[in-house]
Specification:
The chain has five helices and no strands. It is mainly alpha-helical and 180 residues long. The longest helix is centred in the first third of the chain and has 38 residues, at 31-68. The chain is elongated. The chain starts with 30 loop residues before the first helix and ends in an 8-residue tail after the last helix.
């Protein structure tokens, strides 16, 4: 029986560095730092969701009161409720979610935000009116009609939630390079 033995070769000497200045090595970020952007995005989405809940509760409270008391038709109640909900939504998104402070820009921030909200208003008003009509035809109680209208409102705005986040993050409240 023969035994084969291998010998590790002697490592070669490192190549001589070229003469001249040596570029510093780039630091390697620890693994947890590389994950920070994802955690930052998750925290931002959580704040955005919280703002959405606050604005939605505000709007639904106004909508519910106006529809349940017949102070306004479901369509007009939705318009009023959405306009009331725009105020906390804009301010909380601007300040808390995207950490903007200082003067608001009417043309770069407020008008586009309101326009985006009005697109949601248009979609939700159509849905709210259809839900109210269906609830009336079904002979639902005041509570049933109010819940149907509020569900239609949430469904319409919920379908636009992700699109709105992307528009706010990439366009409306994006961080601008101060050098530009």
């Amino acid at each position: 029986m023969s035994v084969i033995t291998t010998v590790d070769p002697v490592p070669a000497a490192p190549a001589a560095a070229p003469p001249g200045p040596v570029a510093p090595a780039l630091p390697v970020a620890p693994a947890r730092t590389r994950l920070r952007p994802r955690r930052g995005l998750m925290a931002m989405l959580a704040r955005y969701a919280t703002v959405s809940v606050i604005a939605t509760v505000t709007s639904l409270t106004v909508l519910g009161v106006l529809v349940a008391t017949d102070l306004a038709t479901p369509g007009w109640a939705n318009v009023i409720a959405t306009c009331v909900g725009i105020v906390p939504s804009f301010e909380l998104n601007r300040r808390w979610v995207w950490s903007k402070s200082g003067q608001r820009s009417l043309t770069r921030e407020l008008v586009p935000f309101v326009a985006l909200s009005l697109i949601g208003l248009g979609a939700s008003t159509v849905a709210v009116q259809a839900a109210a009509r269906a609830a009336d035809q079904a002979g639902l109680s005041t509570l049933g009609r109010t819940l149907a209208v509020e569900l239609a409102n949430v469904a319409a705005f919920g379908s636009l939630w992700v699109v709105q986040f992307l528009v706010l993050d990439r366009i409306l409240f994006r961080r601008r390079d101060p050098a530009v």
